[in-house]
Amino acid sequence: MANNSIKLLAPDVHRGLAELVSKRLGVPLTDCKLQRDPTGEVSFSIGESVRDQDIFIITQIGSGEVNDRVLELLIMINASKTASARRITAIIPNFPYARQDRKDKSRAPITAKLMADMLTTAGCDHIITMDLHASQIQGFFDVPVDNLYAEPSVVRYIKENVNYEEAIIISPDAGGAKRAAGLADRLDLNFALIHKERARANEVSRMVLVGDVTDKICIIVDDMADTCGTLAKAAEILLQNRAKSVIAIVTHGILSGNAIKNINNSKLDKVVCTNTVPFEEKMKECPKLDVIDISSVLSESVRRLHNGESISFLFKHSPL
Amino acid sequence: MSNNIVIFGGDSHPELVNRICENLDIKPSQVELGKFANGETSISVRSSVREKDVYVIQSGCGHVNDTFMQLLILISACKSASASRVTAVMPYLCYSRQPDIPYTAKGAPLVSKPRNSLSSTSKTNDENTTTNQSKILHNGVLQSTNTVNRPGSEFPFKSLDNAIRSSIQMEQPVPVREPKLAKTSSMSRIPVIPDGRISRGANNDAEELFNAQNSGYKLWVVQAGTLIANLLTTAGADHVITMDLHDRQFPGFFTVPVDNLYCKPMAQNYIQHFIPGYKDAVIVSPDAGGAKRATAIADALELSVAIIHKEKRSQLPKGPPDATLTSGVSLSSKPLISHNSVDDTINSNSNQVPVLSANGVATEFANSNAKSSKYIQTTMLVGDVRNKVCILIDDLIDTSYTITRAAQLLKDQGATKIYALATHGIFSGDALDRIKLSPIDKIIVSNTIPQERTIKKLGKHRVGIIDVSLVFAEAIRRIHNGESISMLFEYGF
């Protein structure tokens, strides 16, 4: 019987998360090489045999060159497939195009579905992702999708870093109410809701607060922070309603466009993101940023997946 | 034209889209192309496509991953908006040519870096289609290259070889190993005389490290052809129209029909009308893989042919058996055949290879640089070009190493005027600078890829553009009406 072991692959940019996972698992990253020609075409090679191995490809897709990262990932998957890997698991903590998940107007593309089709076409056998924008996206795939939650790690962060007896959990929009309520339940806290009327993507209009935040530390919880306009506005409204202070915890800190400027100018004390998205460079420009490391969850899920154990434990608990 | 047709253009080549639409006498349909703040592509389709015959035109140029994703999303959007058929029109199909060796940052294939300071400063350093050779360029810069890349560029079997490899899902890794040896996918065909000692020295080339760590494993590079084909069909393309695919086998990767149009009729037309004295010209193929392409044009125009052939043979120092080597006059400074043969035995034998000069510098270089391989690298010209107008024919020009080197060789061999004709002018990196310095008198490319930069850089008189919009428009018209398009293959338009 051939031995079947874990092989970790990562593209050459944004390897931070992959390196953390590799360290935790004690499995070195497999040598591989991505080369781009000036137009952006990618060629890829794997430095060792992956025949009959259990491949995990870890990629951090943030903002900017999303399409480059996607094509690189697809080519890496396909390369592993054609190299006779036994199983290929793509670890995409921040699933790209997750917000294009429905036909919200005529002839709008459902790009999330296209992404799912493309990943399976390339030869992906399993997807691990985290806090999908809509968990229904799992249904777009023909292969198993493990949607991990950052919640246990967030709970730990709050317990360790915030005086949480005085805190209240805020959902910045109605869609996130369930997530916020879940977190509030876990911490035994109250929660409040900000209702907003969105005019266009990446733009915020009027906001209304539902609930009482007087003299509380407000923790805004969301799955994604893009330009941070919403967060900044929400912080203002909360402070207008006599909140003591406001911090924001988001899973995917995409922080594109004017995000850093918005955060620096906002009344937020802190913006905490998980490291599903690479934002190390942005931390230098913005002292308000803080990071929650979720590599432990990912590495544990890799280990469990490889050994055929249950992953649902990780939905409630955050391994150290 | 029936009102059942809808044409969308991506943002890669709006001019071609407009020209095609002009020829079809319809307007391109409204589509809003943009990006979200986080870099994801956003598209909104402004006109109805229900039960329409949709054509999406996007060339594989610019920032290819972005343009390709845009194409996929646009196809997917049309498909999910109930279009009856979606045809992807890709004048140049990106990822249709994948080298066997990774690219360097400059875009040239990765090579083991020569330790010679001269050559490492040389810009014209690596080359796209040759293997392991050290030679003196016309500017006297010593250089070393080893690589191979484009399928079909070196051995006649290679394109076939590649296609087979891709179609059998690459079970055979492309062997690319000891950086000091020639790295070529056809290496298995070449008898290797092993020489235990490979000097690794201070050469910190990533690939070398790479291989040193994994001595039992041969580095190979994935060929993305099948993947690209599958992605297009997954997105919902029912039909693909493209032009002059690098691999003739590429349509086999698709499960949907692919119409590969040819630029050849237009190229012939151009030669007949715009190249003075073409009747005495010689058609030259810059590599053996393109010989068929060149001979087809030569046959049609009844011109003579010459072929530049880069060959790597094992050490046995017999002359190239059936090569006609024209002239060795200019050899002292510009060797027709140079070699990177590499151990002393070969160097001492090298003078037995006809017309092969173990040039002083080259020998020194070979001695210092590569003690491991027993290959002789030869570049030879088969055919007579003296006092003739030469027309170099290739399907695409990317880094332009091949074409400029070929042009230099032709000039050295006494060609009077050199034209270079290719379907796809990608001109990545500093390709245009290289062409500017080269003896190429005029470069002729089609407008499958925008050529404004080329004209700006080389000046109008040195660039000829072949307009392919008419043939694409005609193909779209015929496909829409369900007529045969095979006439376009023969006569163009």
UniProtKB/TrEMBL annotation, chain A:
Keywords per UniProt: ATP-binding, Kinase, Magnesium, Metal-binding, Nucleotide biosynthesis, Nucleotide-binding, Transferase
Record Gene3D superfamilies: 3.40.50.2020
Name of a matching Pfam family: Pribosyl_synth
GO cellular component: cytoplasm; ribose phosphate diphosphokinase complex
Biological process according to GO: 5-phosphoribose 1-diphosphate biosynthetic process; purine nucleotide biosynthetic process; regulation of cell size; ribonucleoside monophosphate biosynthetic process
MF GO annotations: ATP binding; kinase activity; magnesium ion binding; ribose phosphate diphosphokinase activity
Function: 5-phosphoribose 1-diphosphate synthase involved in nucleotide, histidine, and tryptophan biosynthesis. Active in heteromultimeric complexes with other 5-phosphoribose 1-diphosphate synthases (PRS2, PRS3, PRS4 and PRS5).
Enzyme Commission number(s) of this protein: 2.7.6.1
InterPro entries the UniProt entry points to: PRib_PP_synth_CS (IPR000842), Pribosyltran_N (IPR029099), PRTase-like (IPR029057), PRTase_dom (IPR000836), Rib-P_diPkinase (IPR005946)
Ribose-phosphate pyrophosphokinase N-terminal domain: residues covered: 6-123
Superkingdom of origin: Eukaryota
Catalyses which reaction(s): D-ribose 5-phosphate + ATP = 5-phospho-alpha-D-ribose 1-diphosphate + AMP + H(+)
Native organism: Arxiozyma heterogenica
Name this polypeptide is given: ribose-phosphate diphosphokinase
Family, as annotated: Belongs to the ribose-phosphate pyrophosphokinase family.
Transmembrane intervals: none
PANTHER family: RIBOSE-PHOSPHATE DIPHOSPHOKINASE FAMILY MEMBER (PTHR10210), RIBOSE-PHOSPHATE PYROPHOSPHOKINASE 3 (PTHR10210:SF48)
rRNA-binding found in the keyword field: no
Automatic annotation (TrEMBL), chain B:
Top-level taxon of the source organism: Eukaryota
Keyword annotations from UniProtKB, A to Z: ATP-binding, Kinase, Magnesium, Metal-binding, Nucleotide biosynthesis, Nucleotide-binding, Transferase
InterPro entries with a match to the protein in the record: PRib_PP_synth_CS (IPR000842), Pribosyltran_N (IPR029099), PRTase-like (IPR029057), PRTase_dom (IPR000836), Rib-P_diPkinase (IPR005946)
Enzyme class of the recorded protein, top EC level: transferase
One GO location term (cellular component): cytoplasm
Reaction catalysed by this enzyme: D-ribose 5-phosphate + ATP = 5-phospho-alpha-D-ribose 1-diphosphate + AMP + H(+)
The keyword ATP-binding belongs to this UniProt entry's keyword annotation: yes
One matching Pfam family: Pribosyltran_N
Positions with biased composition (Polar residues): 114-137
GO BP term, example: 5-phosphoribose 1-diphosphate biosynthetic process
CDD domains, sorted: PRTases_typeI
Annotated pathway: Metabolic intermediate biosynthesis; 5-phospho-alpha-D-ribose 1-diphosphate biosynthesis; 5-phospho-alpha-D-ribose 1-diphosphate from D-ribose 5-phosphate (route I): step 1/1
Similarity-based family: Belongs to the ribose-phosphate pyrophosphokinase family.
Biological function: 5-phosphoribose 1-diphosphate synthase involved in nucleotide, histidine, and tryptophan biosynthesis. Active in heteromultimeric complexes with other 5-phosphoribose 1-diphosphate synthases (PRS2, PRS3, PRS4 and PRS5).
Identification of the protein by name: ribose-phosphate diphosphokinase
Organism: Arxiozyma heterogenica
